[in-house]
Amino acid sequence: MSGKPFMTFVTLLLVLSFFATYCFAREGAFILVSRRLLSEDLVEGSPFNVTYEVHNAGNSDAQKVVLEDPNFGNQDFMVLNGSVTLTWDVVVAGEKKVTVVTVQPLHAGDFGARPLRLSYRSSKTNVEHESVALASEILFVYTRAVYERLKGSHLLAWSVFFLGTCVIVGVPFVVYILGDQSLRKTKRKTK
Ligand SMILES: *[C@@H]1O[C@H](CO)[C@@H](O)[C@H](O)[C@H]1NC(C)=O
Ligand SMILES: *[C@@H]1O[C@H](CO)[C@@H](O)[C@H](O)[C@H]1NC(C)=O
C-alpha cells in the first residue's frame, strides 16, 4: 500500500534533481558524446574502427574529461590501436574531439549494451559531472563461416539497425534510472 506513494515520491525527486542538474550543467561545461562503429557487419577476427566524438556544448571548459567504454573487454575483443578509456586534460567550450580506436572481435556472439561512463569537471562552476549512456547498442559478431554464407544477401541489412549512434548528454544518470524504472513498469503491465 505504501509502496506506490513512495515510488511516486522517488520519481518526483529524480525528475526534480534531473532538472536542477540540467540547468546547473548548462551554466558550465556540457559534454555530448557519440560513438559510431565504422563497419556495417562485424566478423570474428576482422578489425573494425570505433569513432568516439566528445563535444563540449556548454559555455565553459571541461577539465579531466574521462570517457570509458566497457564493451570491448579482453575476453571478447582485442584493442589493436588506441584505448577504450579516453582522457583529455581539457575540452574547451565549443570544442569537438574525435578519436578512432581499432578493435578486433576475438569470437562470434552478441556483446555490449553496457552503458558508457563519462566524467569531467566544469571549470566555471567547479562541479564534477558523472554520467552514463542513455542507451548502448548490442554488438553482433558473425562467425566467418556464417558471414561468408550470408554475404550478398539482404539478410545482413538488419544488423545495421544495431550500429546506430550512442549519445550521452551531460547528466543522464538520472535519466537512465528513470528509463529503467519505466521499462520495469511496462514489463509488469504486459504480464
Ligand atoms: C581504421 O582507421 C585507420 C585510420 O584512422 C585506417 O588506417 C584503418 O584502415 C581503419 N581500419 C579499418 C578496419 O577500417
Ligand atoms: C593509431 O592511433 C594513433 C592515435 O591514437 C593514430 O595517430 C594512428 O593513425 C593510428 N594508427 C592506425 C593504423 O589507425
UniProtKB/TrEMBL annotation:
* One Pfam family, short name: TRAP_beta
Name the residues that span the membrane: 155-179
User: Could you give one GO CC term from the UniProt record?
Assistant: endoplasmic reticulum
Official protein name in the record:
Translocon-associated protein subunit beta
Q: Residues of the signal sequence?
A: 1-25
Reply yes or no: does the keyword Methyltransferase apply.
no
Which key words tag this protein in UniProt? Answer: Membrane, Signal, Transmembrane, Transmembrane helix
Top-level division of the source organism's lineage: Eukaryota
**UniProt entry tagged with the keyword DNA damage:** no
Q: Native species of this protein?
A: Galdieria partita
Extract the coiled-coil ranges from the record: none
